[in-house]
Amino acid sequence: MRWDSTEHDGVGVLHLFGFLGRQDTHRFDGAVDWVRSRSNGMLVLDMSGLLGWSEEGEAAVVRAAQSPLAVCGLRDRPAPLLSGDTTGLIRIYPDLRSALATA
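== STAS domain-containing protein ==
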């Protein structure tokens, strides 16, 4: 997994690329902390560059929702843990533009 970040009007965007597997969860956690520490608003997680993820990778995304988290770019890929969020902290959007419009 690789990651990059951008900022849009105080909203931090974490762009993910490759595959988010168990071996990448520590790097993902660090990336989330890094982006959150440099932005003022909601974190947007852009998953459009991911080729896929394991159950452990998806669980890491759920753990990242300690505060509101916008997720975009899932396409038609199943994400049962994300869409089953019972805390209401994860909001799912079809694309980055939609996520940023409501952040």
